[in-house]
Amino acid sequence: MASASELDPVLTKQQRIAELAKQSPHMGFTSLAHHIDLRWLHEAYLRTRPDGAPGRGRTNDPRLQQEPAGNLRSLLERAKSGTYHAPPVRRVHIPKGTGPETRPIGIPTFEDKVLQRAVVMVLEAVYEQDFRPCSYGFRPGRSAHQALDSLWRQTMGMRGGWVVEVDIRKFFDTLDHAHLRDLLGSGYAMGCCCD
């Protein structure tokens, strides 16, 4: 009987990329785009919610959903040739907490969501190796509920102490992005206090 990885070429590729990243953590990957082929893009299509919030024009383009094979092939060709240009996102302001403030978010088109998912599938295989077990943000198989559970268990294990919630107003609006890149480049941001 064949294993799941033998049956699923996308999963097999992801496992190979992950193994290479784990074996050579200091190696720089100079090109990963060649991993995205039609099967990979189709898997990304299957993992993208077709009923999610629509992008610009307030409708999800039904062509990709009605004829996925041909339209995915077109999307792949445009992405590989460098002629794909992401359409403008729809800007929406959602309430931030209970006050009158809102938080702007951008909603891409369905086609763009599919291509983004394909890229995420490649990058997750590479970078998942670098995260510590205590990291929960935007990781496959991890959730905010698991993070809260871990925090609760660690807090109860300390048998006392303080929990402080801090909301730094418009932090990323005022952050020096050059400083952030330096910080991320140093590897310091991967640190964690759960050892």
Overview of the structural elements:
With 195 residues, the chain is mainly α. Helices cover 48% and strands 6% of the residues. The protein has 9 helices and 2 strands. The protein has a two-stranded antiparallel ribbon. Strand 1 and strand 2 form a beta hairpin. Helix 2 crosses helix 6 (110-127), helix 3 (38-46) crosses helix 5 (68-81) and helix 3 (38-46) crosses helix 6 (110-127).
The percentage helix is 40-55%
The overall pLDDT average reads: 81
In DSSP terms, counting alpha (H) and pi (I) runs of 4 or more, how many helices? 9
Q: What's the β-strand tally? A: 2
What is the chain-wise order of helices and strands?
HHHHHEEHHHH
Radius of gyration: 20 Å
Poorly predicted sequence stretches spanning 5 or more consecutive residues: 1-5, 188-193
Strands ordered across the widest β-sheet: 1-2
Structural class: mainly alpha
User: First CA to last CA: what distance?
Assistant: 40 Å
Give the DSSP E fraction (strand runs of 2 or more residues): 5-15%
**Largest sheet data:** 2 strands, antiparallel
Taken from the alpha-carbon principal axes, the silhouette is globular
Could you name the key traits of this structure?
195 residues; mainly alpha; 2 strands; 48% helix; globular; disordered N terminus
Would you spell out the secondary-structure blueprint of this structure?
Layout lengths: L3 H4 L1 H15 L14 H9 L15 H5 L1 H14 L8 E6 L6 E6 L2 H18 L16 H15 L12 H4 L2 H10 L9
Antiparallel strand pairs: 1-2
Helix pairs in contact: 2-6, 3-5, 3-6
Provide a quick synopsis of the model.
The chain has 195 residues and is mainly alpha-helical. The chain is built from nine helices and two strands. The longest helix is centred in the middle third of the chain and has 18 residues, at 110-127.
